[in-house]
Amino acid sequence: MKLWNKNHERLFFNRCRNFASPEQLFNQTEDGRFLAYWPKSYRGRKTTLQSRNSLIGKFSEKWVADLFRHITQDKNLFVVQQAQIPSIGIGYNSPADVVIATRNKKVLRADDVKIIFEVKMSIVWNWIYDIDSDSLTEIGDYRTHKGKPSFTRSDSILKAIGKCIDIRVSSIDASKIPLVVIGNAPLSNGFCKKADYLKNAGIIQGFWSLNPYPLNHGNTRKSSHDGGYMRFDDISELKDSVEELFVNDLNFFSGMKSPEQLGKIIEIADNELTYQEKGMKFIKLINGS
DNA sequence: ACTGTAATCGAATCTGCTAT
DNA sequence: ATAGCAGATTCGATTACAGT
């Protein structure tokens, strides 16, 4: 098994062609070409393609689930997609993308859950689709087109952070569950320090990119200073990191605060209005300021 | 009182643009 | 470069309503 690469994107489009039209999967240029993204140089008429969003969302989520299933196959653990964990505020209308749990159920108790993954992946390369020959050709990495992939988008990251904060402040039961955000692109410069901060504060255990070679030529960052962001180059690296989290999760907050202190902090942070404000308050309090 | 259909709503998916 | 807004589409659940 391989981590995310061009073949997966090819597979995604080929799969979808069984039931979706080219118009649903690609942007159509004025001169009739079907492109995955608008090239930076394109000056013609444009619309914002929406019909592909949930398709790639589902595809990548399933891909991530299968990947972790493969990693955890020899253990007594299950990978569950769209899991509900009512006790920590993850209900049926906003389930967790992918979790690893000790029971193979859609509805889980907090104790059952070993880790929660928030998946944020999209098409990284640009592709041209030829309708006559039904063939795909890659025409550039994300530097050549307008669409920024997952981890390079600030609001995508902010939303992931928001969801994680929401879980953290929802219940004391959530404090032992590691949260990891999964993507397939490098984390933007500005967020590396924040990712480290979030990791050190114990809120989010990592932003993990499962795309070893996101650029056609040139290097991307392997990890942020404290490992809040990491790029994985093969499956065994990923396996190691997951296992490390499993070993460490027992005393996750132990060195920081007692349950009573933590409860107070959560209560105070929850009084803030927005996710971002809740998050900032939480971070401030947990660091004793 | 029940059934079936339609409209509505909330949340989620990702991409494009713009103000700062 | 970052934050924030707006947008199309989908899914499922809820609500509303009409017709037995």
Chart the SSEs and their pairings.
Elements: H1 6-16, H2 22-25, E1 27-28, E2 34-35, H3 53-71, E3 78-83, E4 96-101, E5 113-120, E6 126-130, E7 135-140, H4 154-170, E8 179-183, H5 189-200, E9 206-209, E10 229-231, H6 235-248, H7 259-270, H8 275-286
Parallel strand pairs: 5-8, 8-9, 9-10
Antiparallel strand pairs: 1-2, 2-6, 3-4, 4-5, 6-7
This protein binds a DNA duplex (20 and 20 nucleotides) through residues 24, 37-38, 46-58, 92-94, 120, 122-123, 146-148, 150, 153-156, 158, 188-191.
Query: What composes the largest sheet?
Result: 6 strands, mixed
What is the count of structural domains?
Answer: 2
Order of helices and strands: HHEEHEEEEEHEHEEHHH
Biggest sheet: strand arrangement: 3-4-5-8-9-10
Beta-strand fraction estimate: 15-25%
Second rung of CATH, namely the architecture of the largest domain: 3-Layer(aba) Sandwich
**Mean of residue pLDDT?**
80
| Alpha-carbon Rg, integer | 20 Å
Strand tally, please? 10
Oligomeric organization of the protein chains: single chain
* Class by SSE composition: alpha/beta
User: Which CATH top level class of the largest domain fits?
Assistant: Alpha Beta
The span between the termini is: 46 Å
The CATH topology assignment of the largest domain is: Restriction Endonuclease
Number of helices: 8
Q: Based on Cα principal axes, name the global outline.
A: globular
| Poorly predicted parts | 249-256
Helix content: 25-40%
